[in-house]
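Below: protein 1.
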Amino acid sequence: MPDSHDQLAKNKMPYSMTFYQDQAGASGHTSTPLPAAHRLLYVRHGAVIVNGMELQADGFAYFSDALTLEGAADWSEVWRWELAAPNAASVSLQGTDILTLPKLARAITTLALEPGTDWLFRLDSVISVAGRITPRHQHHGPGIRCLYQGTFNVQDASHVTANQGPGDAWWESGVDTVVAWHSTQMTAIFIRALVVPMELKGEMSNIWLDGSPASTSNWRLFIDQPITL
């Protein structure tokens, strides 16, 4: 029988966000489903069939059930974000002509993600024109970004993430103040998964610190999925 410390740990279990890049060839298919989890998917290239639903390039979806995937193009890449316990093992696709690259995992320490609480699991995109410098800001929740196009640099008080290229991923806690800058030659685009409070539904996550006017012109919201942990 678990003692009180075990029960307390279970009731207050923190969550981690993990980011994967999955690849599937034309004949690729999973031999066993991935276990049920809160998942966001974005098709970076090609086309796939997920749980019987076809997703083309730039397609996206949320899934919470067990997941199967098969290729529907010569070569496809899917970006996948999941919520799990910080000590959970990586969840890779198993099957023929299929591959998973675990890219990044971070424990969420800035939100009280306790069992029974409600949150938004968000997937969105940000487009920054060539030469833009994003002023000091924070976010209403943490998340993992992955660069789609261009190059990207971001800095907080103690750490610089520099010269990110397409396919590179990075974490922002939300509470750390950051500034970001991009190539002067090409627009930068990144895809991002966040956990944010329910009251933020349909609204940007940014908290501008220098009186910068809020703008949604470079923001594209894909999914605001209510979840219960």
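Below: protein 2.
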Amino acid sequence: MSKISNQAAYPALLQPTLSDYLVITDYDNKLRTKTVSLNTVKNLFDVSYSDVTIEISSAELKALLATPKTLIAAPGVGKVLEVFSIFAYMDVGGVAYDFADPVQVKMGTSVWAEIPTASVMNSAVDAAAHFSKTSLACPINTAIKLQGQGQEATVGTGVMKINLRFRTLDLQTF
């Protein structure tokens, strides 16, 4: 068996996911070698949140008023999404957007973030912003969406990436 540090035998995994596996030694079972998912290791340390990054295309950005972009689907009956933080990054293309009003990250009627037009949405250079709330209504079984206000942007290129750190709570078992 090769040494674990031998990257020819075991190539590096640059972007592991929670469904990937680790090899461990089971202390309670005669030091036998076993596999375990990263998700199981995460749960061992009580890390109860998830991170997701969503990319929004130029066409989707220009249609946010008529067609809000779902960032996280509704979690199901008796469940609620609790958002800890939102990070927005505008990767500007050749032409700045012309949003008239801030773009909102919403759950039903609850607004988690208003992404400002001047400093982020309509910026001529790459821009980023971080948002978090201390209190807000969390509608049950409701998706989180990116939504325009007032009017659609008519010009602009580039993509936006939004990272959400959140957890899903089952209201019957938490």
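The mean pLDDT is 91.
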